[in-house]
Design goal:
Strand content: under 5%
Largest sheet: 2 strands, antiparallel
Mean pLDDT: 93
Order of helices and strands: HHHHHEEH
CATH class: Mainly Alpha
Number of domains: 1
CATH topology: Four Helix Bundle (Hemerythrin (Met), subunit A)
Number of helices: 6
């Protein structure tokens, strides 16, 4: 279900994440996402982190590292828009980040880091005034992205990867 709100503005690429999220106030959605993420990560921590469902695909640990990296980047983007930074919102290449990250992961460290990052992201959004959610910035491709959309993207990004962990990696979340 796509959230109906005029403050939702983002490049079409992000629809797949935004559409994962149901309607609701972003602060409430963020709070609920913290609880769901914690439950999921405690299950994932019992999995074999080096498992990849096919040759050339990311391991579970690399997927978690990607989700953490992406969330930190999106939180910075949200902060930039909230503070009305005039600079373009830079894109990043997820595969380059995955390749450049350390390969010897400690899954328990990844779990703890992701929980802390999500809690910090939820607190960041709680600190935004409600009227700021319609603020937007321009991407380095010249497209508009709103603060509210970034909140939905953050929540939906995990929901997207959660489905992949279930359908392709066989983790029952």
């Amino acid at each position: 279900m796509y959230p109906a709100n005029s403050a939702i503005r983002h490049p079409a690429f992000f629809n797949r994440y935004v559409e994962e999220v149901g309607p609701g106030k972003i602060r409430d959605l963020m709070d609920a996402s913290v609880n769901l993420l914690e439950q999921d990560l405690h299950i994932i921590a019992k999995s074999e982190g080096t498992f990849a469902y096919a040759p050339g695909k990311w391991s579970i640990n690399t997927l978690l590292r990607h989700c953490i990296d992406a969330e930190i980047i999106f939180a910075f983007r949200a902060l930039s828009i909230a503070r009305q930074d005039p600079h373009p919102i830079r894109s990043f290449e997820e595969n380059q980040y995955a390749i450049a990250s350390e390969k010897a992961y400690d899954v328990e460290m990844l779990v703890q880091e992701f929980i802390h990052v999500r809690r910090a992201t939820a607190l960041l959004f709680k600190g935004f005034n409600e009227d700021w959610l319609s603020r937007s910035g321009k991407t380095d491709n010249g497209e508009q992205i709103s603060l509210l959309s970034i909140g939905y993207i953050i929540v939906g990004h995990w929901l997207h990867h959660r489905k992949i962990l279930h359908t392709r990696y066989g983790i029952n979340l």
